[in-house]
Specification:
The chain has helices spanning 2-20, 25-28, 55-65, 67-88, 138-205, 210-245, 249-253, 275-285, 287-307, 373-379, 398-464, 470-504, and strands at residues 93-103, 106-108, 115-117, 120-134, 313-325, 329-347, 354-370, 382-390. By secondary structure, the protein is α+β, with helices and mostly antiparallel strands. The protein has 2 domains: 2-26 and 53-91 and 136-315 and 393-504, Up-down Bundle (Outer membrane efflux proteins (OEP)), CATH 1.20.1600; 330-370, no CATH class. Keywords: Cell outer membrane, Membrane, Signal, Transmembrane, Transmembrane beta strand, Transport.
Length: 511
């Protein structure tokens, strides 16, 4: 979470710091604005919106179109599919098999196991099923582990949404800050332009020296440059906001945001915030903490999955088989018969030689026909039942090392969860410290602006009366400009940090 929070803080801090230079005349010429950091990649096919954007509308649009959030949703869908597959592993398996074979030359008949030398066609059909009766509870523990992984993936979606919401809020406030600095610098240009015109009149009247007019014109050029710099800052801030929102080119060019009333921070603005209480609240509701705890439970469940490899495995299977062979024939005895006369020679027992004896026999007609296809499938039908037991004895220490790796993974998950809590606490403490510093800076800057405003008015009167040269007058004006810019920066810095603290307390990000 700390990395994410730093990402949020950097655009705002960089934007506020650089935009402050718009009103700081001595440093405005030396600074060059670098392009903003690229936000998460996004599709440029979003529909073109219309109308000024509120912060809530910008956040909602970004959540619907940002690719990082979409990627988190896809990761959750993958975890859901993995969970479904692990649940389906508890069900029996069932498969149908079929084949058709042609044998040429000498081969073994697959149904009679006789050698034959002829071309035969055979079909084999089988169906089998198997169910795991016991596997060391690995299947059930895998389901429980995947349930936890899926819930953690849902937490990742919420974290991605929260990260994007804070990024959009930061860019939105940067844009508001830039717009206010543009207005402030434009007001200074108008004031300086009027001062140049007054100085010209006074110079013609002989009330002031020509050097005062030269100094006023130089100050006008500086103020105009500051306006251009502020406008560039506004353009970059709007571009960064549009990129976070994943707007297309046309919508980026037409992007306009509303300017809500933002209260000035005072001494009681942080009276209702306690870092310790905020941390306790955030710890219970932030999705990254929930996801980290779920992954610890998932790692513990994975230890049980690994330990299941120590236990024997028992399976039950059943199958059915049949087949057909074109070489299988059927002997058919017909109703017709054929008479055969057979002559036997019998030796006379009383002597006198051999006597011929004729016997007539009748034999039925026998023919060999191919056995019909469906009759073979019915006659060759076989069934089987099987129990299979696997007892692990020695498998290269795979089970032992898997258990050790899973235990180490538990320690890593616990360490990551502890780190998430530490980073969350540090982020809250940092946000509170930054908000408190911005609050103090705003109060001090406000008092400084009031004092410098009086000093500037006095200097303006003296300058118009020729009692103050242009250089001293410009110094007084630039001091007021720097104080006003510092006050504006402190105001927006406080507002963002206060919104971060509200976010950790479970409140919505609203202006």
């Amino acid at each position: 979470m700390k990395t994410t929070f730093t990402l949020f803080r950097r655009p705002l801090v960089a934007g506020l710091g650089l935009l402050l230079l718009v009103g700081n005349v001595p440093e405005a010429h030396a600074q060059q604005r670098t392009p903003p950091a690229q936000p998460p990649a996004g599709s440029m096919q979003a529909p073109t919106p219309s109308g000024p954007w509120t912060l809530q509308a910008a956040v909602d649009y970004a959540l619907a179109n940002n690719l990082n959030v979409r990627q988190s949703r896809l990761s959750a869908q993958l975890a859901d599919v993995t969970l479904l597959q692990s649940r389906a592993a508890l069900w029996p398996t069932a498969n149908l098999n079929g084949s058709q074979t042609w044998n040429y030359g000498t081969s073994i008949n697959p149904l009679t196991n006789d050698f034959q030398s002829q071309t035969t066609r055979s079909n084999n059909f089988s169906a089998n099923t198997q169910v795991t009766l016991f596997s060391g509870f690995q299947l059930r523990n895998t389901v429980k582990r995947n349930v936890l992984d899926y819930e953690a993936a849902l937490g990742d979606i919420e974290k991605a949404r929260n990260d994007l919401s804070l990024n959009v809020a930061s860019a939105f406030l940067q844009t508001l800050l830039a717009q206010e600095l543009v207005r402030t610098n434009q007001t200074r240009v108008n004031s300086t332009q009027q001062q140049v015109e007054r100085t010209q009149v006074l110079l013609k009247a002989g009330s002031v020296a020509e050097s005062n007019l030269i100094d006023s014109r130089a100050q006008l050029a500086t103020d105009q440059l500051n306006v251009i710099t502020a406008q560039n800052q506004e353009t970059l801030a709007r571009l960064q906001l549009a990129q976070f929102m994943n707007l297309n080119e046309a919508a980026t060019q037409a992007l306009e945001i509303t300017t809500p009333p933002l209260p000035d921070p005072d001494e009681l603005s942080l009276a209702d915030v306690n870092p310790s209480a905020t941390y306790q609240t955030a710890q219970a509701i932030q999705p990254e903490i929930k996801a980290a705890d779920l992954r610890v439970q998932s790692a513990l469940r994975n230890v049980e999955v690994a330990r299941g490899a120590y236990y024997p495995r028992l399976f039950f299977g059943a199958g059915i088989f049949t087949g057909y062979s074109s070489a299988r024939n059927l002997t058919v005895i017909g109703n017709d018969s054929t008479a055969r006369r057979t002559t036997f020679y019998v030796e006379n027992p009383n002597g006198g030689g051999i006597t011929p004896l004729s016997v007539t026999t009748y034999q039925r007609d026998v023919s060999t026909l191919p056995q019909r296809y469906w009759d073979q499938l019915d006659n060759n039908l076989g069934r089987s039942l099987q129990f299979s037991l696997q007892v692990p004895i020695l498998n290269g220490l795979q089970a032992r090392t898997n258990v050790q790796r899973s235990k180490i993974a538990v320690s890593q998950a616990e360490l990551r969860a502890e780190q998430e809590r530490l980073l969350l606490r540090q982020n809250i403490e940092q946000a509170y410290a930054d908000a408190l510093a911005a609050q103090r800076q705003y109060i001090a800057s406000k008092e400084q602006v009031e004092s410098l405003t009086l000093a500037y008015r006095n200097a303006e009167i003296r300058f118009n009366n020729g009692l103050l040269n242009g250089t001293e007058f410009n110094i007084a004006k630039n001091n007021l400009t720097a104080a006003e810019s510092s006050m504006i920066q402190a105001k927006y810095s406080f507002i963002f940090r206060r919104k971060v603290l509200d976010f950790y307390q479970g409140k919505s990000i609203e202006l």
